[in-house]
Amino acid sequence: MGFKMGIVGLPNVGKSTLFNALTKTAAAQAANFPFCTIEPNVGEVAVPDDRLDTLAAIASSKSIIPTRMTFVDIAGLVKGASKGEGLGNQFLANIREVDAIAHVLRCFEDGDVTHVEGRVDPVADAETIETELMLADIESIEKRLQNIVRKVRGGDKEAVQQERLMRAALAALEEGKPARLVEVDAEDRKAWTMLQLLTSKPVLFVCNVGEAEAASGNAHSEAVAAMAASQGNAHVVISAQIEEEISQLEPDEAQMFLEEMGLAEAGLDRLIRAGYDLLHLETYFTVGPKEARAWTIKSGTSAPKAAGVIHGDFEKGFIRAETIAYDDFVALGGEQAAKDAGKMRAEGKAYTVKDGDVLHFLFNT
Questions:
Q1: Contact 285, 306 (CB under 8 A)
Q2: Nearest in space to 273 (alpha carbons), one of 87, 49, 8
Q3: d(CA 125, CA 123)
C-alpha cells in the first residue's frame, strides 16, 4: 500500500517542474503558460528509507524493494474553476481520486515567469484554490441532498447517514471552513470518505522558493508557514528547480550538489516524510536472503490487516506474526541472533504493528 498525492496549484507555480523532479522523467511538460498540463500525469517514485538498506545489508538480501508513492500532476486551477473556468471541471474530477493534496505555492520572484494574477502572493493563491474547492463542494452537496430526499423520507439508513454528514459538511463550508475540519465519528468514517469531498482531503503546502532560498526559505514561505500552522496543516520548503537538477545527477554528484547548496537532504525526502505524517502512514519490513522489502500501512493497523497488504490470503488465514523491532534486528545483527536473544515475539490478531517492525507472517492456506 502506497498512497496517491495530487500536485495542485495555480498555473506557473512549478507543479510540473516538481513532478518532473519527483518522478525523474520529463513526462509532464513544464512550460511558461497556463494549462501546459492538460491531462493528469501519473508517476510512481520509490520512498527512500535508509532502514531498508541497513536491513538488506545485514540479511545479505539479493534485492531491495522499497515501498512506492504515486504522484499526480493535475492541470493548473484558476479562479472560477468551480464554475468550469479554465480546465476547472477536469481539475475537480481528478482531485477527487487522490488521498492527499500537495498544494504548490509560488514563493519565488521571477519577472520571466508570469503569474496568472500578476503578483506573487502565496497566501492569496492558497485562498483562491481553497475557495474554489469549497464552492465546488457546496454545489455537489446541494445536488446530492436533492437526489436522496425520497430515500431519506423512506427511512433508508444509508441515505439518512449521508444526509446527516452532508449537512454537517455544508454547515462548515457555508461558514468558510473546509470539510476536513468537521469532526467525524469512527462509525461514520467510511461513509464520510465515500462522499469524496474535495476539501476533506488533507493538505500539504509546498513552498516553491528560488535556488538561493532553498535552505532558509524567505518571507513568502514564512507567511505560508504561519497560515499552515493556523489551519493545522503542514508545509515544506522546496526549490523545484534544484530538485529537477538533482534528479538528473548520479547519487554521489547529487549529494555533493546538496552540500554545496547548504541542504542536508533532497526536498523529495522531506516531502515524502511530510506526506507520511499527513496521512498517518508507517512502514514495516519483510527481510530475507531473497529480498528486503518495505510495506506501507496506516498507523494503528492490526497484524492481520498488515499481512493483507502483502496478499489477501495472508489476512484471511492469519495465524501469527513473528516480530522483531528494527533496533533489535540491527543491534543484534539479524533474525537468528535476535531470536536467540529472545527479541523475536509471536504476536496474534490483536497486535498493532509498529513503525519499523520486521515481520514474518504465518497463515493457513
A1: no
A2: 49
A3: 5
Pairing of strands 4-8, 68-73: parallel
Strand partners, 100: 5
Return the C-alpha cell found at 121: 502572493
Strands (E), the chain: 4-8, 41-46, 63-65, 68-73, 100-106, 203-208, 234-238, 281-287, 291-298, 318-324, 345-347, 358-363
Instruction: Tell the residue number behind the cell numbers 523475536, with chain if given.
Output: 344
Q: Residue 225 carries which side chain, given as an amino acid letter?
A: A
| Rounded-to-integer distance, Cα 345 and Cα 100, Å | 35
Cβ contact 5:97 at 8 Å: no
Per-residue pLDDT tens, the chain, 365 aa: give them.
Answer: 558 889 888 888 888 888 888 876 434 333 443 333 435 578 888 888 899 999 999 999 999 998 888 888 886 565 554 455 444 456 677 788 888 999 999 998 876 665 656 678 999 999 988 998 899 899 999 999 999 999 999 989 999 999 999 999 999 999 999 999 999 998 999 999 999 999 999 999 999 999 889 988 999 999 999 999 988 888 999 999 898 888 888 888 988 988 888 888 888 888 888 888 888 899 999 999 999 999 999 999 999 999 999 999 999 999 999 999 999 999 999 999 999 999 999 999 999 999 999 999 999 87
CA count, 13 A, side-chain hemisphere, 151: 13
3-state secondary structure 174-227: HCCCCHHHCCCCHHHHHHHHHCCCHHHCCEEEEEECCHHHCCCCCHHHHHHHHH
Residue 4 near residue 97 (C-beta atoms within 8 A)? yes
Torsion angles phi and psi, residue 58, rounded to 5: -65, -40
The Cα–Cα gap between 156 and 159 comes to 5
Taking the model in full, what pTM does it have?
0.81
Is the four-CA dihedral 142, 88, 236, 45 of positive or negative sign?
Answer: positive
The torsion of the CA quartet 352, 353, 359, 361, rounded to 10 degrees, works out to 40
CA–CA dist 290, 285 (Å, integer): 13
